[in-house]
Write a structure and sequence with these properties.
Blueprint (H helix, E strand, L loop, with lengths): L8 H6 L5 H20 L6 H30 L5 H43 L18 E8 L8 E9 L4 E8 L1
Antiparallel strand pairs: 1-3, 2-3
Helix pairs in contact: 2-3, 3-4
């Protein structure tokens, strides 16, 4: 595909410049490349294919304007250089917008998906998991911290959380909270 872009240079190098024959061969080569590009999906990404096709349309328009410019100059009616510059600026603006979309799309897609899911869950009285508390907050006050042997009796109305186990002396560090 990249090698096909070299083909339009051959008439410019091998033929006499600014002649009808050179423009005709360049046009035929560009039309052949365009037919290939528009009939085959050479890339998997639709954005790359869109930019490739846009560049080919840009090339064909410029080639047509250059040929028309040759006729207009030979008739002595001015030139079309402003139109060629305008076409190129429109093409560049399109490519810049396409690049901006490619770069910003993931951010906006994530934000839109989150917003859409949040609205859906809110309609059904639910919340996003990122807004929920992972652990239930117990409303208990700390009574004391003790290091007790594993065999020591702990009152039934206390809430015990093992902190670490010291296997050498069978001690368990616990926090005894009022229940």
């Amino acid at each position: 595909l990249v090698l096909m872009k070299i083909l339009p240079l051959l008439p410019a190098v091998l033929m006499e410049p600014r002649t009808f024959g050179q423009r005709l061969v360049c046009g035929l080569i560009e039309i052949g490349i365009s037919l290939f590009i528009f009939s085959v999906n050479a890339y998997q990404s639709p954005l790359i294919m869109m930019s490739l096709r846009a560049s080919q349309v840009h090339q064909l328009i410029l080639l047509g304007l250059q040929s028309l410019d040759l006729v207009v100059r030979n008739d002595g009616r001015g030139d079309l250089s402003v139109a060629m510059i305008a076409v190129t600026l429109v093409y560049l603006a399109f490519i810049i917008i396409l690049l901006a979309v490619v770069m910003l799309y993931p951010f906006f897609d994530t934000e839109y998906s989150t917003w859409s899911l949040k609205n859906l869950l809110t309609r059904h009285g639910l919340k996003l998991s990122s807004e929920l508390q992972l652990y239930r907050q117990l409303e208990v006050s700390e009574k004391e911290i003790v290091v007790a042997p594993a065999t020591q009796h702990i009152p039934e109305d206390s809430f015990c959380i093992p902190k670490n186990i010291n296997e050498e002396d069978s001690m368990i560090s616990e926090i005894i909270l009022s229940g």
